[in-house]
Design a protein that fits this description.
Layout lengths: L1 H28 L4 H8 L6 H7 L19 E6 L7 E3 L7 H16 L9 E4 L8 E18 L8 E16 L6 E9 L5 E10 L11 E5 L9 E5 L2 E7 L5 E4 L8 E3 L5 E10 L6 E8 L5 E6 L8 E3 L6 E5 L9 E5 L6 E6 L17 E7 L4 E6 L5 E5 L5 E5 L2 H4 L10 E2 L10 E5 L10 E8 L7 H4 L7 E10 L4 E11 L6 E5 L4 E6 L11 E7 L5 E7 L5 E4 L4 H5 L9 E6 L2 E2 L11 E2 L6 E5 L2 E7 L3 E8 L3 E5 L14 E7 L6 E9 L2 E11 L1
Parallel strand pairs: 15-34, 24-28, 36-43
Antiparallel strand pairs: 1-34, 2-43, 3-4, 4-5, 4-6, 6-7, 8-32, 9-10, 9-33, 10-11, 12-13, 13-14, 14-15, 16-17, 17-18, 18-19, 20-21, 21-22, 22-23, 25-26, 26-27, 27-28, 29-30, 30-31, 31-32, 35-40, 37-38, 38-41, 39-40, 39-42, 42-43
């Protein structure tokens, strides 16, 4: 009898526990869970990480093996195109832009060694097949001399000239040809004193612009001169980056469509985010491949960024490491900064915004939306622009301590961060959804105790309720300069120039040499001419409008195109390892987890494979592949993206190539399987790691 009662009690207890678990699950399902109730009762904000898991996700998230890829576990890449030889496979190889550039450059060098004369030079138009309004002129001279070229402009101020150092064998880069016309190019030989000893005219005929660039720039006000010889425009719907002169004529463009960023370097080259590789995110896929390019189109180095790049790549110091904006991908995007060693490609420092701003403010996937970063070496600080926090923040790059916040004080009122907010002096209108916030080297207020911060104030609001409470609703943007007294923690607005309202993107540039300030409105919604961009050039002191150009398409930024003709004239020098960076590493799984080989063969033409170096690129539409499995005789690895949940179905239309590093796989013979949409497939692809 006692035993029966004891068993009954145990059964009742088990039933009670089961009912309790079911009740707790029901509460959680209906968002009345114990955890949430506790958070609400104590007046705390439910952490975004909890909210994020409840949001509707798009794409396919089935897993064959229950693994989770650690996004902090990356593998360093340091190789070149020839590294692909370490992988035996029938998967086709695709070379990098670096290898393609070097091959062409060697051909040019061979031509140069053929010894063309000054009287009959060799003219090669668009030598690297990516910059149609460029050329290279090759010839020898009996004696060493410098060379100057001039592309004759439609006006004298529109002439574009460059000079290269003295030599007897010359490779003269020509930048600035007009499209669809016979261009006159003047070549001049210069002696050691700069005196012209000989000259001649060449005619270079060019083809018409691509249709997308037809009527891309329309002058509104033209003075005939500009502080910028060439102004570059790029990004967003401006998929062919181009440059226009002081009259608004296009004189340079890249023929390969680039939908993402271009970032200027101190060596007069640029970092270009390439479309060859993408990583999925909670929103738009992010490009993983960055190239260092010059304006002839030559690529020198490729960098992998594991979580992808957005908005900004900038040099920490001239010629130094790169500061790259990226994403944590752990529920959020566009919230992370990494310092990449320029020589090795390894990440040597990083900052995630959630580590310095409490999660109470993480109210959506793109909660900070970092759009610029810059470094001040004298103070070891960075200035960042988290657009969705309506703030510009200065932070010690080593200690991660906040120095100050430039923002309307009402935004941070009542929080632990209001102590960092600079106190305003004088009357001014605060910024909303700003871009390109940089600390200037120039002293614009005559006070050595202050630093100046310039920015483009889009003066728009997104979804943040707190900012909308005091948004003035003015439909115009501003070029702003603030004077910050860092010791007193005060701020004054010393310049505010209104420009056409641009609700996103855009840039402000102060040019110290000319004392001009530029406003680049990249996303104009309401314009009299129904076009989508506008650029301005003002005298900083008088605020006189010097030049204004209307642009046909939306763009990300516009900036000065700076050229180093000696660098463009020099033959390429190829580093042993020109492919650098880090990528997410596939997870090694235990053998006992394995079930059996998939019965279905994947025959979908939308899934493709190619190899670059030892990185496998798997082409697919966004979030259609959740796992890539490498099943060997003795080892199994999984590249898994199921934790990266898509929150906007529009991005499912993006076609991307996932870069999967093979460098960390043990020597074995592998078959490649995928979880594609709702099925488990054999791709019929094999690789052997030696």
């Amino acid at each position: 009898m006692k035993k029966w009662k004891k068993k009954t009690k145990i059964i009742v207890l088990l039933i009670f526990l089961i009912l309790l678990v079911l009740f707790a699950a029901l509460c959680w399902k209906k968002r009345r869970g114990i955890y949430n109730t506790y958070m609400k009762l104590t007046g705390q904000e439910i952490p975004y990480s909890v909210k994020e898991k409840r949001k509707k996700a798009y794409g396919y998230y089935e897993q064959k093996l229950n693994v989770s890829m650690n996004l902090e576990d990356t593998i360093p890449i340091a190789e070149n195109d020839d590294s692909a030889a370490a992988v035996e496979t029938t998967i086709p190889q695709e070379e990098t832009l670096v290898a393609a550039s070097y091959e062409i450059d060697r051909q040019l060098q061979a031509e140069q060694e053929n010894g063309y004369s000054w009287e009959e030079p060799m003219v090669i138009q668009n030598p690297y097949q990516s910059a149609p309004l460029t050329a290279v002129v090759i010839f020898d001279t009996p004696e060493e001399c410098a060379v100057r070229f001039t592309v004759k402009g439609k006006t004298e101020a529109a002439d574009i000239s460059g000079e290269i150092e003295a030599s007897v064998s010359h490779r003269v880069p020509v930048i600035g040809l007009y499209p669809d016309m016979d261009n006159t190019v003047v070549l001049e030989l210069l002696d050691e004193n700069g005196k012209v000893t000989a000259s001649q005219e060449l005619t270079i005929t060019t083809e018409a612009l691509p249709e997308k660039l037809t009527d891309a720039v329309k002058p509104v006000k033209v003075s005939g001169e500009s502080a910028f010889e060439l102004t570059m425009v790029y990004g967003q719907q401006t998929t062919y980056p181009f440059a226009y002169d002081c009259m608004g004529d296009i004189r340079w463009y890249l023929s390969g469509e680039k939908t993402t960023g271009l970032y200027m370097l101190s060596n007069c080259r640029m970092i270009v985010a390439d479309k060859a590789g993408y990583v999925p995110s909670q929103e738009k896929p992010q490009p993983t491949n960055l190239y260092e390019l010059d304006y002839l189109g030559r690529a020198y180095t490729m960098y992998y960024v594991a979580a992808g790049n957005h908005h900004e790549v900038i040099e920490k110091e001239p010629g130094g490491n790169l500061l790259v904006l990226t994403s944590s991908l752990e529920g959020h995007i566009e919230d992370k900064i990494q310092e990449i060693d320029r020589q090795t490609g390894e990440v040597v420092n990083e900052l995630i915004m959630g580590d310095i701003i409490d999660s109470e403010y993480e109210d959506r996937v793109d909660w900070t939306h970092l759009n610029t970063v810059s470094y001040q070496p004298e103070t070891d600080t960075i200035v960042i622009s988290p657009r969705n926090l309506e703030s510009v923040i200065k932070i010690n790059w080593t200690t991660k301590e906040i120095q100050w916040i430039l923002c309307d004080p009402r935004f941070w009122e009542g929080t632990e961060y209001e102590k960092y907010v600079l106190q305003p002096e004088g009357d001014f209108v605060y910024h909303f959804q700003q871009h390109t916030a940089y600390q200037l080297d120039a002293d614009l207020d005559g006070d050595s105790e202050t630093v100046e911060i310039s920015m483009f104030d889009n003066h728009a609001v997104k979804l943040r309720k707190k900012a909308m409470e005091y948004y003035d609703g003015k439909k115009e943007s501003y070029l702003l300069v603030y004077s910050v007294n860092e010791k007193e923690k005060t701020v004054q607005q010393i310049k505010k120039l209104p420009v056409l309202w641009s609700n996103i993107t855009s840039s402000t540039i102060y040019d110290e040499e000319s004392n001009h300030i530029f406003g680049m409105s990249g996303h104009v919604k309401v314009a009299e001419d129904k076009r989508h961009g506008m650029t301005y050039e003002f005298d900083y002191d008088t605020e006189e409008l010097i030049n204004q150009f209307s642009l046909k398409d939306y763009f990300y930024r516009a900036s000065e195109m700076k050229l180093d003709y000696n660098d463009l004239a020099a033959p390429m020098e190829l580093k042993e390892n020109y492919i650098l960076g880090e990528l997410f590493q596939p997870v090694k799984t235990n053998k006992w987890l394995w079930t059996k080989k998939p019965e279905q063969i994947l025959e979908d033409e939308d899934v493709t494979f190619h190899l670059t170096g030892q990185v496998l690129y798997v082409g697919t539409y966004d979030h259609q592949i959740s796992q890539i499995l490498f099943h060997g005789k003795d080892n199994t690895y999984v590249y898994d993206t199921t934790d990266i949940r898509l929150h906007d179905e529009d991005y499912l239309a993006y076609y991307e190539h996932l870069p999967v590093p093979l460098q960390g796989l043990a020597a074995d013979e592998y078959e490649i399987y995928v979880m594609y949409q709702d099925g488990f497939y054999d791709t019929a692809q094999k690789i052997t790691i030696k």
